[in-house]
Sequence to fold (236 residues):
Amino acid sequence: MTKTVGIIGGMGPAATCDLMEKIIALTKAARDQDHLHVLTDVNTAIPDRTAAILHGGPDPVPEMRKSARRLVSAGAELLLMPCNTAHYFYDDLAASVPVPVLHMPRLTAAVLQKAGIKTAGVLATDGTVQSGVYETALSNAGVRAVYPDQAMQRQVMRLIYDGVKAGAVPLSDIPVDEILAGLRAQGAETVLLACTELPIAFRALGLTDGCLDPTRVLAFAAVRAAGAETTAPDPW
Fold:
């Protein structure tokens, strides 16, 4: 018997759908009934995580807990959060439910460690970068993290918030090639798309080569943790 997966979604809605699609794609199945039972709570009332971490914005934890408890009450046996920045609040959330909550940054760091990667570029929200969510996970795995400079980090935030979340700026207007070149100049062997909006943007731009998608890592781990067989041997 496989386990029922619960997704604490809405951070943001497109990223939630992206995770669901990756779970489906990574599950080895010949018919509908071979796929996992997945429950999703697209809770768009969860406040912005970066605003909470850096600017004293509303605390997202109460709404995250509501989602987690709703999912567990509905039968979820393990939980996922398709938001990297939200993992800053992981300990509070995980302590509030009686089922495992998979930790996307730690899982991603473990994949890099297994692959022998020593230096990784990190593209993420200001909240993720400044909170050290990935810095800690990567350091514990023996991986050095490098980041865009201040000007390029502003462009990363534009890509995430204006490009994907708001759809107000064409993705092609963001100098993504320049951002990537800056990371590789610092020795990055791969680039982490460490905001769940970024895999959506990079796929649309055709720039996924040389990148690791933590959403895919999470989906892969979820399929395995739920007791299903994956369609690929690893999450790369």
